[in-house]
Design a protein that fits this description.
heterodimer; A: alpha+beta; Rossmann fold; OB fold (Dihydrolipoamide Acetyltransferase, E2P); 2 domains; 19 strands; 32% strand; B: 312 residues; mainly alpha; MetI-like fold; 14 helices; 0% strand; globular
């Protein structure tokens, strides 16, 4: 186990700042997720932690030791790649044994370790197969076993679930989380999928354009976004933003419901809206609408759970409301979170 | 079922050439025809003729031809220069191919990296391949010349040999074999390097990254990851080069003409000297056909490897 730190890490590709002065520190045994849209620098940051890329400036610190100049093999890390990067010409057993052989470990000890990690991931029966004879889910487990077998201080995972189909991804997510809590090894996980990030991480670092916009628990980044980027990147559908010259007002679609749903005692802001479109998603209904009245002219979305059966149809006017405690204010110029204020 | 209109429209243009070219049953044979014709005329007929000649007593200046069975083969196999040529053929082909694969892999690994002036190195490397073979080999003839050898001159300038110690590159048996192998390697290397480079670039970067993270050093990475992954392509390049080395005679013909004392004589040059220059067409054909089973074996190996070849 170890703490991973990045200190003012900068990476330039030509004139482009891929990673722009990132300062991050994990906790001991933590599952930290780097979340952001593609091209935000999260994978580059991970590769720098692994030692596969050299930072243009700044330092990588693992377990209190500056490892910036060390090659990957000296960093006590293990990495799982998006493609799994299994060695196609080796059997599963040889794939898992490869990092141990590279360490020069005794054959007997190798066998024990392989058996242990294979049984932990339930791939004991696959040891004699080649990677091409495995399903996507099995390959992912082999990649995890190969990472696990050398008992690294840090796991680095680069979108390991993105090649699995939707159903398998859900169960693999569950297994991955159990696995990480069981081995309690510090893990840095890169993804662009917010559901994965929210479900897996102890903390999430939301990245955009090479910078970390916010670092916090899933609850913090969701309920208290640091800026409009985080607010609109997380959540499906994203946070509604009503932008005026003085302030930007954000609120989650699930808090923006028909007026009649709320009780009388709540402190509410009422917003008359014209419904433009309805989307039926099974467990939810999405209502696309345009605000009218004092804060009129903004496109907003309301997410109604299926147990709210208020009838609505496109073109109709309807009174929506949202509790004042759900208001999030942002500075209209910087996009940063601002203090609550009167409307 | 075609409607009447469609039937009419597909019939009308079929009369013109353009319409004919639109129909796959015509276009296919038309496209492949020239290649088939070429192979039949340049490879097929000469091959059948050689088969026929090898069991006859045909010679130059004599228009009669009788069937003599395997007499030519038996006669040829008994001669010492044929036996030497067989050994030389194998030494020439196998040593040159081993060198080509080793150097080709090293060059391809070097060219995989980014460095300044890479395009120039690539250009230089491909030069032997695009230059006419005979021209290039004549250049080498001068390099190896016994009196004006630039190679000897350079060695002397470096202080490695004395003016009295100049080598007769093409006049001393082992040096002559070494020289023809060196020139052949120089010639085949560009093609092998390009094939191996293609094989190397087909390995995903993730695999290399994984090996780095897994702690493999340079040699482990090379011998346990990179080389096994390009092995099918290496075999293809090797077998291709082997066929080339077995059949090609230009390098030896220009540099040594098989000499000194037949020490660089290979089957292809021996067949040429016996059959064409010596006038004994029947025996020349028999010598040339000795290559056939060997090449067939190599070609079968080639096809089997190509079918099994699976890169990642």
């Amino acid at each position: 186990m170890a703490i991973v730190e990045t200190r003012d890490v900068l990476k330039m590709f030509g004139d482009v700042k891929a990673v722009d002065g990132v300062n991050l520190a994990t906790n001991e045994g933590e599952f930290l997720v780097l979340l952001g849209p593609s091209g935000c620098g999260k994978t580059t940051l991970l590769r720098m932690i692994a030692g596969l890329e050299q930072p243009s400036s700044g330092d990588i610190v693992i377990g209190g030791q500056v490892v910036t100049a060390l090659p990957p093999r000296a960093r006590k890390i293990a990495m799982v790649f998006q493609s799994y990067a299994l060695y196609p010409h080796m059997t599963v057993a040889k794939n898992i044994a490869f990092p141990l052989k590279a360490q020069g470990m005794a054959r007997e000890e190798q066998g024990k370790r392989i058996e242990k990690s294979a049984s932990m991931l339930g791939i004991g029966h696959l040891l004699h197969r080649k990677p091409r004879e495995l399903s996507g889910g099995e390959r992912q487990r082999v990649a995890l076993a190969r990472a696990l077998v050398r008992e690294p201080a840090v796991f680095l995972l680069d979108e390991p679930l993105s090649n699995l189909d939707a159903k398998l991804r859900t169960s693999a997510r569950d297994e991955l989380q159990q696995f990480q809590r069981q081995v309690a090894t510090t893990t840095i996980y890169v993804t662009h999928d917010q559901v994965e990030a929210m479900g897996l991480g102890h903390r999430i670092a939301v990245m955009d354009a090479g910078r970390v916009r916010q670092l916090g628990t899933p609850q913090e980044v969701y309920h208290n976004p640091a800026d409009t980027f985080v607010a609109t990147f997380l959540g499906s559908p994203p946070m509604n933003l009503i932008e005026t010259p003085e302030y930007s007002l954000g609120f989650r679609p699930e808090n923006f419901l028909p007026r009649e749903v709320y009780g009388k005692g709540d402190a509410l802001l009422s917003l008359p809206c014209r419904v433009t479109r309805l989307e039926y998603l099974g467990s939810d209904r999405l209502v696309y609408a345009v605000t009218e009245g004092k804060l009129g002219g903004h496109r907003v979305i309301s997410k109604l759970p299926s147990n709210i059966s208020v009838f609505m149809q496109p073109g109709e006017r309807h009174e929506f409301a949202l509790p004042e405690k759900e208001f999030k204010f942002f500075d209209p110029h910087t996009g940063l979170r601002a203090a609550p204020r009167a409307l | 079922m075609a409607t009447p209109e469609r039937g009419a429209s597909s019939q009308a243009p079929a009369k013109s050439l353009g319409g004919l070219l639109d129909r796959p049953e015509w276009l296919g044979p038309l496209m492949i025809g020239p290649a088939v014709l070429f192979i039949v005329l340049v490879v097929g007929i000469p091959f059948l003729l050689a088969l026929y000649y090898s069991v006859s007593d045909i010679s130059m200046g004599d228009r009669t031809m009788r069937f003599v069975g395997l007499k030519n083969f038996i006669a040829v196999a008994g001669t010492s220069n044929f036996q030497t040529s067989i050994v030389n053929t194998f030494v020439f082909a196998i040593v040159s191919q081993i060198l080509v694969i080793v150097f080709g892999t090293a060059l391809a690994l070097a060219l995989l990296r980014e460095f300044r002036g890479k395009w120039f190195i690539r250009f230089l490397l491909l030069l032997p391949w695009v230059a006419p073979i005979s021209l290039g080999t004549i250049g080498w003839l001068w390099i190896f010349d016994s009196t004006y050898s630039v190679l000897n001159w350079a060695l002397e300038a470096l202080g490695l040999i004395t003016p009295q110690g100049w080598y007769m590159w093409l006049g001393i048996p082992y040096l002559a074999m070494g020289s023809v192998i060196a020139v052949h390697v120089w010639r085949i290397l560009p093609l092998a390097t390009v094939i191996l480079l293609a094989g190397l670039s087909s390995i995903p970067q993730d695999i290399h990254d994984a090996a780095l993270v897994d702690g493999a050093g340079y040699w482990r990475h090379l011998t346990q990851i990179t080389v096994p992954l390009i092995r099918p392509i290496m075999l293809v390049a090797g077998l291709f080069g082997l066929v080339f080395a077995f059949t090609d005679m230009i390098v030896i013909f220009v540099l040594t003409r098989g000499g000194p004392y037949d020490t660089t004589q290979v089957l292809s040059t021996l067949a040429f000297f016996t059959g064409i220059q010596g006038g004994d067409i029947a025996e020349g054909a028999a010598i040339a056909l000795f290559l056939f089973p060997m090449l067939l074996a190599v070609a079968i190996g080639f096809l089997r490897v190509a079918r099994r070849a699976e890169v990642v």
